[in-house]
Model the fold of this input.
Amino acid sequence: MSVLPVGIAASGDEGYTIEDSLRFRSSAGAYLSRTTGTSNRRTWTWSGWIKLTKENTTQIFSSGSSSNYVLQARIVTGNGIQIYQDWAGSTVMNIWTGTNTQLRDFSSWYHIVYAIDTTQATSTDRVKIYLNGVQLTAFTNNTYPSQNYELSVNYNPFYIASYLNGVATTSDAYQTEINFIDGQALTADDFGEFDEDTGVWKPKAYSGSYGTNGFYLDFNDPTSTATISQDQSGNGNDFTANNISLTSGTTYDSMTDVPTLTDENTANYCTWNNLDKPAASSTTNGNLTATTSTAASEVICGTFGVSSGKWYWEVTPSAITSGGCMIGIRAINQTTAAIVSTTDGYGYYTTGRTYSSSPSVTYGDTFTTNDIIGVAFDADNGKIWWAKNGVWQASGDPAAGTNEAYSGISGTYKPAVSNGGATSACTVNTTFGQQPFAYTPPTGFLPLNTYNLPDATIEDGSEHFNTVLYTGDGTTSRSITGVGFQPDFVWGKERNGVAHHTLVDAVRGLVTGGRLSSNRTNDEDNLSNATLDSFDSDGFTTGSSTNIFNTSGRTFVAWNWKANGSGVSSTTGTIPATVSANTTSGFSVVTYTGTGSNGTVQHGLGTAPDMVIVKGRSISYGANVGDWIVWHNALSATERLYLNYTSAKATGQTTTWNSTLPNSTVVSLGNNLHVNYDSSSTYVMYCFASTEGFSKFGSYTGNGSTDGPFIYTGFRPAYVMVKRTNSADNWWIQDNARDPYNVAKHYLSANTTNAEFSNLDVYDFTANGFKIRTTTTAVNASGSTYIYAAFAENPFKNALAR
Done:
């Protein structure tokens, strides 16, 4: 029979939305089960949305009466997605994506489809796996079932979030929008689609038939455990809920955490971040329980960082050792030990005192286990309050904005919990709004979910930055497409051979201004269209020199930015310039002729840049002497880095930036050789400003561990460049085109001609940032400082599944 699932059509462009999900707690042994009738065992489809919580093996579903007769679909620690069939102790099917598709983003949702049809003559057509709308084809293991093999599904009991009957293994994850189609092998397009505005994969209503044993679970009716596990397909194939709690409180398992922006109470929610904590600490129960160890000053942070808006959440300690529990907020990308080791953290401690750096301040009542601590954070006005069991401490009134615990808070902060130092520890249960609050939030304060985040100016990052990959064919005037816009700045590099980087831009032009190379000091090559022939509406056309952008048999990467054309003359600064600025994305290309005197150059961004790169095109001091000079917001006005060298930051550079930081209009220059030598020297300057949801320029401190720092960006990165600043090391560049799935392994060095390396697990890209997975000193030496430049695939608000 054909039945439409009961989804809600939201107003505007939201389209199909989901209302609820079900949390499966491994601590409770939670799972769903039903005994199936015997019917078709050869052809079926499973589609479901899952939000993961940790790097442990996670069961999606299984079918079988014993470990020797079981089919299981699961996500395996360090080895990606698997579907496996054992029969009488022999493996008859084992499809496994392996280490190149690791699902380690715990801040967002995944959509997984298994399509099975063992009647197919070609073995690879018998099992198909789709992840976020894309069919996976690279497998570490690829044991396919024999033709017409009858699998365990539709023969033995069926379990969701469990291996067998929950005795062996259960999940710690959320699931929703589960469709099981009996008798058809479908594609991901039957259950989802790419959003035309954001490019993000999103759910859509399944409109086909379900077959005899098919079912649809939306988890929308939490009246009882019987109603929450009812089949909504019309088939009546209901499940039994095992160890699912619908009792109000911290164990309540019906969630409004879903992979759509449904309404202000229903969207993708903040949880504790399994990637943003010390190794000895833990997060469980759908990452709503956080447990610190007794090591000194353990801090566990949330998945959301906010710099605007008014927010409310509740934290309930369930265990406290030696009085140690602090609840509060912490600035993003802080690496000091405790919430309040610096003024970039604010906490309410069990003693009733509050902390921001030191000394502590007498504030309110003491609290202990089972007390519910409400947190109200007004990021718009820089204020924070705490409540104990519904009573705002120190006569605070968040709704009125009065008697706050602290004011003057600026920047981006995330929820945080910590112990009180060595020997103390705590466990807290939390709701950010995905479960019902115990107390009514103050008027105007919202739960922490993606619907309530501000809309990003750029919903799809690929409209302003994009990476393309291609293989050279040795021809001239070859059209390279797939960029999605006409680029004004193209940075290309041969991947599988030793070759110079090539940087070209529309302001310098392709005839009078050609190639610059980030790995060398050479003057601009005036090659007369030899580098590129043109910038096109969907990419670029290679030039007459096939050995630069189109060497036969070589693989290439090209990073593309949109500025806004060839540029216009500017006299706003004391040094005349030609400026092409994209104020939407915060990027500009500037060319100018030096003066040899202290001066200023307009950058055109309308806000102070966070990163500036200057290169001499031709310096009269001598040929090929122009280093690439870099300023970054983590540096002072007398510091600089060299893009073409490994060297640490140079200090005491008073003549580079004239000891003056960039402002919203101009970049200040001294009379340094590399930026402003004389009136016969020409330069190009690339300026970047952080743009919420699209670009981020920041810094972090390494820890020397494969469980490296988590860097919060507020978006899913499409590109990351990192440089160590306190010691010599290469500039590393990685992107989501060369590594569309975690772990990101492929890296190039901006300062060398080296071919691409892929010998390390470097980063996990997530919906809200990136996690460092290597100990290599280039990105993660213990105690070393690093800067980064990152550009977005999608802002966190929209990065639901990609």
About this structure: Residues 1-13 have pLDDT under 50 and may be disordered. The helical segments are 225-228, 546-549, 673-676, 777-780. The CA atoms of residues 221 and 228 lie 5 Å apart. Residues 35-210 form a domain with the Jelly Rolls fold (CATH 2.60.120.200).
